[in-house]
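STRUCTURE:
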């Protein structure tokens, strides 16, 4: 199965989370995982993927302009139904606790529903998500005054999302 992680990152925080998600997905030996910054991401690759995970820093509860511009170029895939039944998931980082993580993830999920994708999040019984995460995807607060780019909890949450997407995608593609 092929999984594509696409991210926008301005201060490297979201890049670290994207890499953790890719690591988690790669724990499944059947997964071939690709990861690209949005500036290098090729929308033509999407129709060959089984799962697509995209994310960005949250900007006042909405998608970063770089990822939004990229998503807005997916209209022809929508018109041709190329992403229908592909697994989708999202992730986000913000600088503050109330920086709009969940609203940003809602905004990231919406285009996936328009494309007919099967969106997966992180259920509450996933240990990494129980006290730290969000049901909508991997959302991590990365305070600007911290010396570390990403907390260990954030990295574990990213890996958990990657594992979940890989597991669900494997289950859905096993019968094909």
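SEQUENCE:
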């Amino acid at each position: 199965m092929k999984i594509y992680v696409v991210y926008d990152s301005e201060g490297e925080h979201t890049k670290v989370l994207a890499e953790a998600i890719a690591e988690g997905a790669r724990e499944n030996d059947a997964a071939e995982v690709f990861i690209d910054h949005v500036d290098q991401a090729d929308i033509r690759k999407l129709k060959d993927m089984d799962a697509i995970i995209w994310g960005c820093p949250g900007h006042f509860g909405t998608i970063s302009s770089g990822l939004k511009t990229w998503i807005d170029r997916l209209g022809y895939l929508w018109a041709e139904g190329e992403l229908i039944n592909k697994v989708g998931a999202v992730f986000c980082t913000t600088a503050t606790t109330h920086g709009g993580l969940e609203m940003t993830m809602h905004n990231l999920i919406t285009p996936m529903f328009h494309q007919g994708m099967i969106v997966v999040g992180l259920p509450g019984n996933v240990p990494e998500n129980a006290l730290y995460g969000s049901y909508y995807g991997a959302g991590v607060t990365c305070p600007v005054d911290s010396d570390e780019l990403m907390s260990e909890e954030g990295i574990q949450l990213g890996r958990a999302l990657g594992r979940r997407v890989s597991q669900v995608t494997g289950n859905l593609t096993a019968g094909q």
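REMARK: The CA atoms of residues 37 and 113 lie 22 Å apart.
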